[in-house]
Amino acid sequence: MIKGVIFDVDGVLLNSMPVWENLGELYLDHLGIEAEKNLGETLFEMSLEEAADYLISHYNLEKTVEEVVQGLNKEVEDYYAKRVPLKEGGRQYLEEFRERKIPMVIATTGDRKNAEAALSRLKVLPYFQGVFTASEIGSGKDQPDIYFAALLQLDTEPEQTWVFEDTYQALRTAKHAGFKTVAVYDKANDKNLAQILNTADIYLPEFDDFNVFWNRVSEEEKEQLLIVE
To answer: Across the strands, what pairs with 226?
Structure first.
């Protein structure tokens, strides 16, 4: 039975990819500059420093890299604080877990301030017993440290704890560490969808009817008991 749940934030609870896909365009728009077509695709794989350097050189900005990075970060902060929405159906899952007295925590590679600002505005932050970030733990989700830190807060065992993630790397890490895994679809991870499907214990193309998910969990646990016996 599920004794605890660990939720990722970006791409799982929050539909936050638009800000990252359109960050350069949002920044230029505030400067009164029209962005080139497909700028988001160009910048998406870059670090903020690389993106800033690109914007300075391609748009002849009379700014330093540090100034542009600050501007980009401000766009991100404003988006999380004022605009980013919950994934549709996500609130129902949080309410159902709380109703069943199943403790929940956050484990994110994102910024604590942005995550807490968005979740607080959306009135779901109180659902969670803690927020763990990769920067504070000291390692990303290619290592299981953040999940084990969350586990101490939940006071559960890995096999009793379900991790909700959207990326293949995070799902693989959690799975190999002994956690049960739920893959939540996000368009940003389409290129790894086959690997995600082959890794996760349960795949959610969306947060659909919670009772359907709960029945799937029961089926997974019955199958695991059969394997052990």
So the answer is: none
Residue range(s) of every CATH 1.10.150 domain in the chain? 17-82
Buried b (16+ CB within 10 A) or exposed e, 155-194: ebebebbbbbbbbbbbbbbbbebebbbbbbbbebbeebee
What string of pLDDT tens digits covers the 229 residues of the chain?
799 999 999 999 999 988 988 999 999 999 999 999 889 889 977 888 999 999 999 999 999 999 999 999 999 999 999 999 999 999 999 999 999 999 999 999 999 999 999 999 999 999 999 999 999 999 999 999 999 999 999 999 999 999 999 999 999 999 999 999 999 999 989 999 999 999 999 999 999 999 999 998 888 765 654 333 3
CATH 3.40.50.1000-classified regions of the chain: 4-15+85-228
**Do 16 and 174 form a contact (C-beta atoms < 8 A)?**
no
Q: What is the CATH number of domain 17-82?
A: 1.10.150
Query: Cα–Cα distance between 21 and 42 in angstroms, integer?
Result: 9
Specify the fold of 4-15+85-228: Rossmann fold (3.40.50)
